[in-house]
Amino acid sequence: MTPGFYLLHPWLNGSGRGERPNGSGAHNAWRAPESDPLDTGRLRYIPPPSGLLLHTLHGWMQAYGEQLEGIPPERRGLLLDAYGAFDGVREEYSRPLRAAPPEMVSPLLFPHTSEMSAAAMAAILFDLKGPVICVHPLCPCEVGGGVPALLEEGRILLEGGLCDVILVAALCFTPMPLGEEAVAETAAAHGFPVVDCGVALALDHNEEYKRRVPRDVVRRQAGFTGVCEPLLECVLHD
Amino acid sequence: MKEHNTKREKERKGVFLTSALYREGVEDFGACLEAVRNEAGPALRGVEQVYAATILGDMAEEQATLAGPRAPMALQKEFLGMLRGVADVPVTLVSTACVSGATALALARARIIAGHAQRVGVLAFEQCSPFLSEGFGALRCLTNRPAPYTRERSGFRLAPGFGWLLLSSHHEKGGGIRLAGAATTNDAAHLTGPDREGRGLRRAIESALRQAGAGPLEVDAIKLNGAGTGPADASEYQALRACFGDRLPEIPCLCLKPVIGHMQGACGVVETILASEALRLQHLPGIPQAMRQDAEFPFFFPERAGAREMKKMLLLYSGMGGQNAALILEREDG
Question: Touching check for A2 and chain B: CB below 8 Å?
């Protein structure tokens, strides 16, 4: 198996099986070809958490994207909480990185182990040229991140006038090399099933945004992929 | 009473660097926190929020094996848990590649400016793990002899380290260094490389200057990013050229990565600490590599260290994923 195998393997939809090389992940419907409206198969080099983020944001854009019209890309930001989502990718990619000399490894392999790359791809695809920031506010549930605290960070960016609208996205992604056993363990530890999912919503300016004054945040509806009740509850009730 | 309130309001608008600590070559996070606890302990009182800046998304394989399959997540949790042990306040992890530290400073400043806190700590830490070394090696941007802005440029040298900065809405003693502006932008152009025209970085500079209420003529020195790759050098030069025009070759520049190495997630905080010291002491270090400088990028690097009158300094940071950050430090008169 060459180091490039992991990158070229069509996890997302090329094989039609929607499985990772280790056979895990087949339970996630979003990876099936019919649920890939973004055609992420074109983007051959993206790991699943990045695909999940793009898919989630795409869902939001399809539903509410017209609301961004009139706001210049320089005033649109992205706040991403992908805590732990890339741990599995790092662990998996570290093997080919170490098994082969640098000249034999795709230069794209290493960047894709970072959540920042996922955020950068989203910035490119959705034309977000304001602050694009990956954060994780420590949350007692330790599953999807502290969504209320995440929203607070978004609000601060808006109040500070650093952007006019900010997409807030949170990913919950099981480190796949750990397999189904880890999923079951996590579910047992937290008392609810953990399902790969992404949530996106937008915080935006109010009518006074042009004056660049501290303002209340108007919350827009969420676009989401998959099912993750704790996250959605945070989003819908915060 | 009204006058008193106005004075307080003026104080709140300022964001000052009030306590700083950094170490080079430290790879043990526990030792870093111990240093913060021992040396910056009194300054921790009253901190309302901490931003932890790091990439730290990796660990040695042998560690993973020893610690079990959940080690990567456990390491980050340990990082955050230990941090909360030092300052039991809300902690937010910021991980935006090499701009993590500068982004954390921008978030901390925005939190204080918005009136949500008066004292915010920023701790940045980075290890030099084999994974990072191998990853940057695959990107062909590692070298033992970093030489940004020269024809011999071949990348950067990774270095471990940590830095701690406390931002406060007021400064008790006379003088002080103010974080007058802090902005981050994204190029939205390329996954790893910068926008060759430097448009994102230019927007960050303009935004930071606007926050500081300053114009390009008021910048007395520039701390360059200095990643040491051709595209990064070109992008930085284009952005600065667009902002400062013909005045650029007259502004003294400072570049720290060839000296202290590239601390990735921690470089934003550590380099800000060093630059603030240069500003406070009114002393600019020299850059010996100026002799071999690439004529395409005619920055002004003083060859010898020396006293220099400076009021405002612009600090630039760029990172993977098209990230840019610009900070404006301002020396307050005592």
Answer: no
Q: If you measure CA to CA, which chain A residue comes closest to B135?
A: A110
Give B73's contacts in chain A (Cβ within 8 Å): 84, 87, 175
Domain count, chain A: 1
DSSP state for residue B156 in the 8-state scheme: B
Query: Which CATH architecture does the domain made up of B177-331 adopt?
Result: 3-Layer(aba) Sandwich (3.40)
3-class DSSP state for residue A77?
strand
pLDDT in tens, A127-169: 899 999 998 876 544 444 466 778 888 888 888 888 888 888 8
State yes or no: ipTM above 0.85.
yes
Q: Is residue A227 part of a domain?
A: yes
Superfamily (CATH) of domain B2-168: Thiolase/Chalcone synthase (3.40.47.10)
CB B323 within 8 A of CB B225: no
Q: Check if B305 contacts A (Cβ < 8 Å).
A: no
State residue A3 phi and psi, 5-degree precision: -60, -30
User: What sign does the CA torsion over B32, B34, B35, B37 have?
Assistant: positive
User: pTM score, two decimals?
Assistant: 0.84
Token pair of B121 as six digits: 């700590």
CB B312 within 8 A of CB B209: no
**Quick one: tokens of B202?**
């230019």
- Could you tell me the two tokens for B163? 């830095």
Q: Which helix (H) or strand (E) holds B235?
A: helix B230-244
Residue A204 lies in a domain: yes
Distance CA B108, CA B106 (A): 5
Query: Which residues does chain B have within 8 Å of residue A124's beta carbon, measured at their own beta carbons?
Result: 188-191, 322
pLDDT of residue B323: 94
Compute the 3-state secondary structure of chain A and give helix, strand, coil in percent, each to the nearest 5: 45, 15, 40
Residue (of B93, B224, B216) closest to B147 by Cα position: B224
**What confidence score (pLDDT) does residue B87 get?**
62
With bands split at pLDDT 50, 70 and 90, how would you rate the model's confidence at A238?
Answer: very low
| CA B65/CA B71 separation, integer angstroms | 8
Residues in chain A: 238
Residue B18 CA to chain centroid, in angstroms?
16
Residue A66's domain is classified under what CATH number?
Answer: 3.40.47.10
Mean pLDDT, chain B cut into blocks of 10 residues (334 residues total): 44 77 82 79 80 67 38 52 67 89 96 90 84 81 89 89 91 81 93 89 96 95 93 94 95 92 93 95 80 83 90 96 96 80
Strands A165-172 and A76-81: parallel
| Helix ranges restricted to H, A139-226 | 147-159, 179-190
Judged by a CB distance cut-off of 8 A, whether residue B70 touches chain A is: yes
Task: Mark residue B326 as left, alpha or beta (left: phi above 0; alpha: psi -120 to 50; beta: remaining).
Answer: beta
Provide the angle, in degrees to the nearest 10, between the axes of the packed helices B100-113 and A147-159. 70
In sequence order, the β-bridge partners of residue B164 are B21, B123
Instruction: Let me know if residue A104 belongs to a domain.
Output: no
- How confident is residue A26, by pLDDT bands cut at 50, 70 and 90? very low
Query: How far is the C-alpha of B302 from the C-alpha of A145, rounded, in Å?
Result: 47
